[in-house]
Design goal:
Oligomer: single chain
Order of helices and strands: HHEHHEHEHHHHHEHEEHEH
Helix content: 40-55%
Largest sheet: 5 strands, parallel
Shape: globular
CATH topology: Rossmann fold
């Protein structure tokens, strides 16, 4: 029995040492990732290094529709970073903005919104777990899991470095081995046009997810506290949810937020990659149009 207890203590001590060693090595690798143009590398930039006067937030439409090179020319601005992240809800947008504001206060935050980010039927609250590697490293990430997500078991698991970095070696290695040297500022232009005619797809219902709504409220509150101009945008697409658009319009009215709704603005079909996303040419045209619209808003907001 005594021998068994000694062996068990040795195993526990060995696991603890491995956890510490692996944690420190992976923390160093994650924090020093080079630009690679991948989604994970762009998440690193948003959470750790990016500094910008204009910040774009949202899901896949944000990532693929907003060209930073065109939005950086807004009045009084020199830089823009696109923090859009495919398949993520409002909780990721909130964390990304909180992390960026700790380094630099932007002048403008462009928040691309869709029902998929806020609808409790469609949104994936745990999609954000692909940034759990930054727990304890980036205050905004730590704060999300400790204070907002409300998952006690998750917080306990994140105390383990082995759990926190589970699966990270693959995407971290790809970033270091890619040899990429160009910085796309988070923007990922989609090539090619949609095959065949595009048809509108309508969503019949919308019910806001409570966690995602809290995160949206925090984004708005942070912008107000820091004197940032928030611009809410529904970018061009063929997926329509009238209930969401009405809810978003009411929300913006209650909070006195500018809303630019492009639901009924359909560019030529040749400018779409698919029913949900513009291609590179469409993104350029949309970004130019949006820059002009936001410039007008900035002039109105300036006394």
């Amino acid at each position: 029995m005594k021998r068994l207890a000694v062996d068990l203590l040795i195993v526990i001590a060995s696991l603890a040492v491995i956890d510490v060693v692996v944690g420190r090595a992976m923390d160093c690798a994650v924090l020093t990732m080079p630009p690679a143009g991948t989604l994970n590398a762009d998440q690193h930039d948003a959470l750790v290094t990016a500094v910008a006067d204009v910040v774009v937030l949202g899901s896949s439409r944000a990532r693929h529709h907003y060209d930073p090179s065109l939005l950086a020319s807004l009045p009084g601005c020199e830089t823009c970073y696109n923090s859009g992240c495919d398949g993520h809800g409002m909780n990721y947008s909130m964390v990304a903005l909180e992390a960026m504001v700790e380094r630099h206060t932007p002048r403008v935050v462009i928040l691309d919104v869709s029902n998929a980010q806020l609808d409790d039927e469609w949104v994936k609250n745990n999609a954000i777990d692909d940034i759990q590697a930054y727990y304890s490293l980036v205050p905004a990430v730590t704060r999300y899991y400790d204070e907002i997500a409300g998952d006690c078991m998750k917080r306990l698991k994140l105390r383990s470095n082995l759990y926190r970095h589970n699966g990270d070696i693959t995407w971290v290695s790809k970033a270091f081995l890619s040899g990429a040297t160009t910085d796309d500022h988070g923007f990922d232009a989609l090539a090619g046009s949609a095959d065949g005619p595009l048809e509108s797809r309508a969503f019949d219902t919308f019910a806001v997810d409570s966690l995602q709504l809290r995160c949206l409220d925090r984004v708005v509150a942070l912008c107000r506290d820091r004197g940032i101009l928030p611009v809410i945008v529904i970018s061009p697409n063929y997926e329509v949810c009238p209930q969401f658009n009405k809810w978003m319009s009411d929300y913006c009215s209650r909070h006195s937020l500018p809303l630019l709704d492009y639901t009924d603005v359909h560019f030529d079909e040749v400018l779409y990659h698919d029913a949900s996303h513009l291609n590179s040419d469409g993104a350029e045209r949309f970004s130019r149009h949006l820059a002009n619209s936001i410039t007008v808003l900035m002039h109105v907001a300036t006394p």
